[in-house]
């Protein structure tokens, strides 16, 4: 290699050398400086960098780096420049398709035994409720791979042995019971054991998985790490809202505890090695008949119920089982005023759900904690920014509902790597004290994080829609706080991922049927019709870069990474990302950045494009925030009215976006986990055959899917592990 001070070296060659020498943080700083690695405007900063390079007789040849500037399809140093597989075709088959050279194997299915004392699953709906305390749950979603070190503790670099944590978002009662759920004409559940089975089939599974010498994977039934956490598990309410009057119930008169976790959708994890499971559509499980309960409630309580949707008979009718048990196993799902005070009934029980729940996979006897400092809403997940020693820890979160918000939490304590394997005590340190923020996306491509604290940003006792009493009230009613602060209402914020190379945060906005012509804005810029669906039926992915490479920063800049659309849609106003038959998609949901390969993986959960294909998985090789152009989108409604919106859109990826997988009939592709070496990718196929018809009593008939068992079997959700036949890394 020529000496770095050689005057004949070109700017491009200098760029190659600098890209080779910089760490991830320095690369991100250069990308923030305008997105250019040509470094033509950074001569003042080169001196110190070049001085540190020196000369070395052992230097390897530099990896070619193409300088990138806004408006050109540049690549990021350290990320592959191409995907190595052929795009998988769209499909309506009842099968799981992956590219040639790859194998997808079912690892864990609904009902699989996680204990040597529990028999194999019949898949006939006849297995006992009690057995589900040691069975893999239903409808898996978020998941994480926790490497097990030789000392039996968490080790982030171990790839051959791990605890696989998997959320179970809900159940499909049609498949779970022999003849579907038993419900009387009066809308009452009459078989308690069926409800008990549903209690245990939800929550989270922790399962030890192992890789053999031939690169195949299996799970251990006899592992001490295997554990189920479900809707009956005792949990601590920690942080600012714990042990407050808002949390008082008959189960916990001092408001310090609750039972169970439900609607576990997206997830997160911590740098000290614990799992974060997140409660999404929790309100739908509670019974509250408004006509009977409203007269007994305060104006504030009614406002809170309306803002979160807490009313109705309860989606699974759990509260209707009689007689109740001594510990109110069924009555605790009744959120109505029934007794003389809050400690005599469960009028406050809905306040004890809607949180991020921390669980230690390496301490099977530890009590999970609901971390109230992270706010209460429809938590899709809690995704961490890169942990930096001596700096606060940050998690990004989406509230998965139409016209809701993007949040982040910043810990008060600064990260100390000595806390790795610190368990729940580390969680107490970092997750019980911090600040919650909501995102505001400005039309000019800038953004602000607005603090959600009493006395800040319009959050006060004078806020008319909901007068806040204290900080616990703010966190329990985080949606109202975000309203008061003026956050940007988004098109169903779901999963987030942090690019390990650029530091940019990506978040899927799945779709929004209630987006109207009058409410389109720069960050949610499309209103159009796809078949019978209007609004933003295909969704998009937004991304942002925090100022000064600081996840705790108060400002950021943003653009839109990808717009979901049909390949043949209007290329100016709908198919803005220039999607083709090889990569068009709808309704992005799960998103994950591979630490090993730096690929961005995307799942879909779609109802708009299912006339053409089942849900899918895509692989993307992103650039950086600001690599595209300003786009003008003209929106038109059914009456012919129009509204023009300008937005910042990423440069179309072309062949750097490919379809990697297509799932079976009526499934949702959900969850990502990966071995640290990048040689095994875990995904979940959720609710295949979900549209199977049933009689008025719930008896299933004419299954629309038989995946994964085939033949005449009932369909089952399942976790799948994908490997390359040559043992290499996935996707590259």
Describe this structure in words.
This protein is of the alpha+beta class and 732 residues long. It has a domain of 208 residues: Thrombin, subunit H. Helices cover 11% and strands 26% of the residues. The protein contains 10 helices and 34 strands. The strands form 8 sheets. The protein has a 9-stranded antiparallel β-sheet. The protein has a 6-stranded mixed β-sheet with strand order 8-7-12-11-10-9, covered by helices on one side. Strands 2, 3, 4, 5 and 6 form a 5-stranded antiparallel β-sheet that branches. The N terminus is likely disordered.
Q: What is the topology?
A:
Blueprint lengths: L10 H11 L2 H9 L10 H11 L48 E8 L30 E8 L13 E8 L4 H4 L15 H10 L1 E9 L5 E3 L7 E3 L4 E5 L18 E3 L4 E6 L5 E5 L10 H4 L5 H10 L47 E4 L9 E3 L11 E2 L7 E7 L3 E3 L1 E9 L8 H9 L2 E8 L4 E6 L19 H6 L1 H8 L4 E2 L1 E6 L6 E5 L18 E3 L2 E3 L4 E7 L8 E9 L24 E6 L6 E5 L11 E5 L8 E8 L5 E8 L7 E6 L5 E7 L6 E6 L31 E7 L8
Parallel strand pairs: 7-12
Antiparallel strand pairs: 1-34, 2-3, 3-4, 4-5, 4-6, 7-8, 9-10, 10-11, 11-12, 13-14, 14-16, 15-19, 16-17, 17-18, 18-25, 20-21, 21-24, 22-23, 24-25, 26-27, 27-28, 28-31, 29-30, 32-33, 33-34
């Amino acid at each position: 290699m020529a000496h770095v001070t050689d005057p004949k070296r070109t700017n491009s060659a200098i760029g190659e050398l600098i890209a080779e020498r910089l760490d991830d943080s320095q690369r991100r700083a250069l990308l923030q400086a305008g997105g250019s690695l040509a470094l033509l405007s950074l001569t003042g900063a080169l001196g110190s960098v070049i001085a540190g390079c020196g000369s070395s007789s052992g230097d390897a040849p530099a990896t070619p780096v193409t300088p990138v500037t806004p408006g050109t399809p540049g690549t990021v140093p350290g990320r592959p420049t191409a995907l190595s597989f052929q795009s998988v075709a769209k499909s309506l088959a009842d099968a799981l398709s992956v590219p040639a050279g790859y194998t997808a194997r079912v690892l864990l299915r609904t009902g699989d035994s996680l204990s040597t004392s529990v028999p194999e699953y019949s898949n006939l709906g006849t297995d006992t409720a009690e057995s589900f305390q040691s069975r893999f749950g239903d409808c898996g979603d978020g998941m994480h791979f926790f490497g097990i070190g030789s000392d039996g503790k968490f080790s982030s670099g171990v790839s051959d042995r791990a605890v696989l944590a998997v959320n179970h978002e809900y159940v499909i009662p049609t498949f779970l019971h022999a003849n579907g759920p038993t419900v009387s004409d009066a809308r009452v559940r009459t078989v308690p054991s069926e409800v008990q089975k549903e209690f245990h089939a939800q929550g989270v599974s922790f399962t030890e998985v192992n890789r053999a010498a031939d690169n195949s994977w299996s799970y251990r039934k006899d592992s001490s790490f295997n554990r189920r956490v479900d809707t009956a598990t005792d949990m601590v309410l920690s942080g600012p809202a714990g042990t407050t009057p808002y949390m008082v119930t008959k189960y916990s008169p001092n408001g310090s505890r609750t039972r169970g976790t439900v609607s576990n959708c997206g997830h997160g994890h911590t740098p000290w090695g614990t799992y974060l499971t997140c409660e999404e559509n929790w309100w739908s499980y509670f019974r509250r008949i408004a006509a009977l309960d409203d007269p007994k409630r305060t104006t504030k309580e009614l406002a809170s119920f309306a803002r979160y949707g807490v009313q109705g008979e309860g989606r699974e009718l759990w509260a209707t089982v009689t007689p109740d048990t001594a510990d109110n196993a069924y009555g605790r799902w009744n959120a109505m005023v029934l007794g003389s005070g809050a400690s005599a009934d469960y009028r406050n029980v809905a306040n004890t759900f809607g949180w991020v729940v921390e669980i230690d996979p390496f301490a099977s006897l530890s009590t999970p904690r609901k971390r109230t400092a992270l706010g209460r809403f429809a938590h899709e997940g809690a995704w961490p920014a890169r942990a930096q020693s001596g700096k606060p820890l940050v998690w990004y979160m989406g509230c998965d509902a139409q016209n809701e918000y993007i949040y982040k939490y910043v810990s008060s304590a600064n990260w100390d790597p000595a806390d790795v394997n610190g368990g729940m005590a580390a969680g107490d340190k970092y997750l019980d004290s911090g600040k919650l923020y909501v995102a505001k996306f400005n039309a000019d491509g800038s953004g602000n994080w607005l603090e959600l604290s009493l006395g800040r940003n319009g959050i006060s006792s004078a806020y008319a829609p909901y007068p806040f009493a204290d900080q616990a009230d703010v966190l329990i009613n985080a949606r109202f706080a975000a309203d008061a602060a003026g956050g940007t209402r988004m098109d169903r914020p779901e999963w987030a991922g942090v690019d390990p190379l650029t530091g940019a945060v990506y978040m899927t906005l799945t779709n929004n049927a209630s987006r109207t012509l009058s409410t389109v804005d720069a960050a949610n810029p499309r209103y159009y019709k796809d078949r019978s669906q209007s609004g933003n039926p295909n969704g998009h992915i937004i991304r942002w870069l925090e100022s000064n490479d600081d996840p705790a920063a108060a400002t950021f800049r943003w653009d839109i990474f990808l717009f979901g659309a049909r390949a043949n849609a209007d290329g100016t106003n709908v198919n803005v990302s220039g999607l083709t038959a090889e990569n068009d998609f709808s309704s992005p949901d799960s998103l994950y950045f591979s630490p090993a390969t730096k690929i961005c993986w995307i799942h879909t959960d779609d109802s708009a494009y299912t006339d053409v294909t089942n849900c899918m998985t895509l692989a993307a090789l992103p650039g950086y925030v600001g690599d595209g152009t300003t786009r003008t989108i003209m929106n038109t409604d059914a009456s012919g009215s129009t509204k023009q919106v300008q937005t910042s859109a990423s440069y179309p990826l072309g062949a750097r976006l490919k379809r990697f997988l297509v799932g079976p009939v009526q499934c949702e592709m959900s969850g990502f986990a990966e071995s640290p070496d990048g040689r095994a990718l875990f995904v979940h196929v959720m609710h295949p055959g979900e549209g199977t018809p049933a009689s008025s009593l719930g008896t299933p008939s004419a299954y629309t899917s038989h995946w994964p068992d085939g033949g005449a079997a009932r369909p089952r959700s399942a976790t799948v592990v994908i490997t390359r036949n040559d043992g290499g890394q996935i996707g590259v």
